[in-house]
Amino acid sequence: MSKDLYDVESALIARMLLEPDENYKTAGLAGSDFQYPNLGKMFDAIIRRINEGKSYDSVTIQEDTDIKFDIMELSPGAFGPVEEYIDAIKKAAVRREYVRSLNEAIGKITDGEDDPAAIIAATLGDISVGRSADGLRGADEVIRSYSDEFRRRGTVEGGGGLTYGIPALDSSLLPMRSGRLVVFASRPGIGKTALAESVSDHAAHFAPVLFVSLEMGAEELTDRAMARASGIKAGAIMRGEIGIEKLDEHLKARSDLPITYLDEGMTTTADILAAANKVKMQNEGRLGLIIVDYLQLVADRGENEVYRVGHISHALKRMALKLKCPVLALVQLNRSIEYTPRAPKLSDMRDSGIIEADADVVVIITGDIMEPGRDLFILKQRAGHVGRVSLDFDGDTQRWSAKEW
């Protein structure tokens, strides 16, 4: 890009103020990536307000930062595709980091430290293994990454991925690996949230989990978790028909699980990404699984529902790749499936076109809400087989189990 970097960074701030719907594209960018500190400070202030669910404009950002920013002073030529500005800022930040690393090496050599050749080799090695700003990686780097991952296969956490914790399901589905988008879909009342909760509980024994609940609060989810753990009917727990001392053991065990809940309304994919980054930071760079219940309730806006759902699906897939962990998204099925006696299809997912393409695994759950039997149709699985698994779901205790014939 030929524009001066100050113009580029200023233009990005202007676009963020003028077109907030585009701000999800800045995921992965930080104020420290800006060459001009004042603009970086403004960027961080905008992101902070987004994460806190607060409105923002040039006036509120000036109040937050004591920095005046007049959009009208920018030339018309400063406005273009926001992706170009983000790319230019990232590349400039990488170049500055390279220069800093090389200057440090020169300083060590100048100070007379031993073996200058080793210092230069180590510095060039550090630079070469880092990904470039455009995301390109050479075959040698990919092979190193692949070898490291391969050695971890067979373990639950790491290259081997996370299992689902239900033997019948684990025998048919490959483990959830880094970068994968897994979709469970059903009509309401069939038990998909309970299934996701069971997967969450199992995964949390191996790695931190972020559970994004857009339909129920964390306390209601805990009611259901207590039913699963204790075998006491969820209705009795919710009505307070038992003393809490009967749940003490299970509450203590649950409090030790590394599950973090995001259960606020009007949650966007940008909110989810910010929360995931925070959870990962709090757990020393570890995040095993993100669960979103459910995809159509994510509050991103779009020109129409198909476009909006597609945007959310894309964002969740990118999130899985960026954060290097699987994302399990729950999806509602179209109502028409209730009236058609046939096996489900991918197109039965509501506004499903892009979900089908983005997902690595799609499982559609069917059954009679009045009966325990459930059929889980594996309609898509990259590198795995498709088919059907039959399980039982007990709504009273929120437990999934092998089908009793």
Q: How would you name the CATH homologous superfamily of the largest domain?
A: P-loop containing nucleotide triphosphate hydrolases
Q: How many helices in DSSP terms?
A: 14
The secondary structure category is alpha/beta
Given this structure, which CATH class of the largest domain is correct? Alpha Beta
Round the Cα radius of gyration to an integer and report it.
Answer: 24 Å
Q: For the residues shown, what is the average pLDDT?
A: 83
Question: Topology, pairings included?
Answer:
Elements: H1 5-18, H2 37-51, H3 58-65, H4 82-110, H5 116-129, H6 139-152, H7 167-170, E1 181-186, H8 192-203, E2 209-213, H9 218-230, H10 234-238, H11 248-255, E3 259-262, H12 269-282, E4 289-293, H13 305-323, E5 327-332, H14 353-358, E6 361-367, E7 373-381, E8 387-394, E9 399-402
Short description:
A 9-stranded mixed beta sheet has the order 3-2-4-5-1-6-7-8-9, sandwiched between helices. With 405 residues, the protein is of the alpha/beta class. The chain has 14 helices and 9 strands.
Describe this structure in words.
With 405 residues, the chain is an alpha/beta fold. It has a 9-stranded mixed β-sheet with strand order 3-2-4-5-1-6-7-8-9, with helices on both faces. Mean pLDDT is 83; it is low at 128-134. It has helices at residues 5-18, 37-51, 58-65, 82-110, 116-129, 139-152, 167-170, 192-203, 218-230, 234-238, 248-255, 269-282, 305-323, 353-358; strands at residues 181-186, 209-213, 259-262, 289-293, 327-332, 361-367, 373-381, 387-394, 399-402. It has 14 helices and 9 strands. α12 (269-282) runs parallel beside α13 (305-323). The chain folds into 2 domains: 1-136, Orthogonal Bundle (DNAb Helicase, Chain A), CATH 1.10.860.10; 167-402, 3-Layer(aba) Sandwich (Rossmann fold). The chain is globular, with a radius of gyration of 24 Å. β4 (289-293), α13 and β5 (327-332) form a beta-alpha-beta unit. The relative contact order is 0.11. The longest helix has 29 residues, at 82-110.
